[in-house]
């Protein structure tokens, strides 16, 4: 029996199988129509100073600060060669890049510096991604509204960033060498046999040190606030499966109030126009440590990308800050049985990324990964997601490996879904960051991938925007 409370909520009661009553509620929303409300700094008024061939050091530095605060280009550098001003920086504020370009051009023009062109090079972790060239004279016409329907697009064009992007001497910067941040973290499992809802809520503190344009040191500490994973009361699964316990030891890791979840050194580089690469080593996630690397082929403004990652990892030992498992066979005092862990394996995947497959599925992304997983199984992961006009992404994934249903255990294979919500829909400030919520109905050991801190497809997103696609 279903009763409609409102247009966006139904309640239901059911009696089934002759012995079960259920109750539920269904909520409905149109993700296309989720509109943001921002309290943002206005774009600068177009008031160019008198034309000059030079600016003082303090004037250049003031421009860098304004580019970070008003146009959203953090970790920026400014170059000037007498004919063009070049700005490099990471866009952290506006999903709509035309808004960022307009604001940056307005700030440069207002200095009065004599330049024919403004080059805005977007980076991520200081790797060049895209280059927008803005004609100074045509932009002046746009800013003055010299004609009906004037737009920043009339004066600009975006291409793949040149490999060597410094043009002329550097005149100022607003470099973020050291960053620290805090964020809540929720781990959850719904529908398990131990309890309908298992959760762990905590706080993650993260730090990054950019040693130079390629080397990056990072770390993270997780503080557990509250959880009910004590109900996840077995170490050896009762269904008789004998896979290495690469994920089902969750409770043991959460027994610690504080845990170092990441401590790694990363090298990032771009070795040609369409190729990006990284190498990394250390404590890569809360359960595994090791070394690895990734190569990504991502042509500019292309729906396709192809990436390959290869890693060698060992499982971290619960109850130890930096310890690793050395013996595969472990003994559970609670279960009076032995179980196996991962003491060293090669894992990695080749992944095809395809936006709007076949050109007919508007606002979708398909990802197909094939490779070896953490418990030594081999198989394929399919991931399909839909992005709504607002930027909210909903996706599903499934992994099938060479494990039989009996070997895998309850659930037969790994699957789940997720929702990704732009922060600027949740706050009053524009942002390119996202909040991600995922759900796996059952956490098992088969089909599990390594968690990597800087996936190159996400890092290079501006080359063919998906995560940072503007509101349609």
Describe this structure in words.
It is a single chain. The chain has 472 residues and is mainly beta. The protein folds into 3 domains: 2-33, no CATH class; 57-174, no CATH class; 209-219 and 235-248 and 266-463. 10% of the residues lie in helices and 44% in strands. The chain has 6 helices and 24 strands. The strands form 4 sheets. A 13-stranded antiparallel β-sheet has the order 10-11-12-13-14-15-16-19-20-21-22-23-24, with no helix packed on it. Strands 8-7-6-5-4-9 form a 6-stranded mixed β-sheet. It has a 3-stranded antiparallel β-sheet with strand order 1-2-3, with no helix packed on it. Strand 5, helix 2 (97-110) and strand 6 form a beta-alpha-beta unit. The two termini are 38 Å apart.
């Amino acid at each position: 029996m279903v009763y409609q409370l409102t247009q966006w909520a139904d309640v239901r009661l059911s009696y089934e199988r002759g012995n079960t009553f259920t109750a539920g509620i269904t909520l409905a929303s149109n993700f296309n129509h989720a509109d943001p409300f921002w309290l943002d700094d206005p774009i600068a008024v177009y008031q160019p100073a008198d034309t000059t061939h030079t600016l003082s050091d303090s004037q250049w530095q003031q421009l860098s600060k304004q580019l970070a605060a008003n146009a959203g280009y953090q970790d920026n550098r400014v170059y000037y060669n007498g004919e063009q001003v070049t700005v490099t920086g990471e866009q952290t504020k506006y999903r709509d890049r035309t808004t960022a370009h307009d604001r940056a051009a307005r700030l440069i023009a207002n200095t009065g510096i004599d330049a024919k062109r403004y080059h805005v090079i977007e980076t991520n972790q200081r790797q060049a991604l895209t280059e927008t060239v803005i004609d100074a004279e045509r932009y002046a016409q746009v800013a003055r509204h010299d004609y009906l329907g004037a737009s920043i697009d009339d004066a600009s064009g975006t291409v793949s960033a040149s490999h060597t992007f410094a043009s002329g001497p550097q005149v100022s910067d607003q470099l973020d060498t050291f960053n620290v941040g805090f964020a809540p973290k929720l781990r959850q499992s719904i529908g398990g046999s131990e309890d309908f809802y298992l959760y762990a809520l905590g706080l993650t503190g993260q730090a990054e040190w950019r040693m130079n344009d390629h080397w990056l040191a990072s770390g993270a500490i997780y503080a557990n606030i509250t959880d009910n994973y004590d109900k996840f009361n077995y170490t050896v699964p009762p269904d008789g499966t004998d896979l290495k316990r690469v994920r089902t030891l969750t409770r043991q890791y959460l027994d610690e109030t504080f845990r170092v979840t990441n401590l790694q050194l990363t090298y990032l580089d771009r070795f040609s126009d369409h190729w990006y690469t990284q190498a990394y080593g250390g404590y890569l996630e809360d359960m595994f440590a090791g070394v690895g690397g990734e190569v990504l082929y991502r042509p500019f403004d292309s729906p396709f990308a192809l990436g390959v990652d290869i890693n060698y990892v060992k499982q971290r030992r619960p109850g130890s800050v930096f310890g690793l498992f050395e013996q595969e066979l472990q003994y559970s005092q609670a279960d009076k049985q032995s179980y196996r862990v991962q003491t060293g394996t090669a894992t990695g995947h080749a992944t095809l990324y395809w936006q709007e497959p076949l050109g007919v599925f508007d606002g979708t992304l398909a990802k197909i990964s094939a490779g070896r997983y953490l418990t030594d199984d081999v198989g394929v992961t399919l991931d399909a997601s839909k992005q709504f006009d607002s930027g909210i992404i909903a996706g599903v994934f499934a992994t099938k490996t060479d494990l039989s249903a009996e070997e895998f255990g309850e659930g037969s294979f790994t699957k789940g879904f997720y929702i990704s919500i732009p922060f600027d829909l949740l706050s009053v400030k524009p942002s390119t960051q996202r909040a991600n919520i995922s759900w796996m109905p059952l956490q098992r050991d088969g089909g599990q991938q390594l968690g990597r801190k800087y996936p190159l497809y996400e890092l290079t997103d501006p080359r063919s925007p998906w995560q940072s696609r503007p509101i349609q």
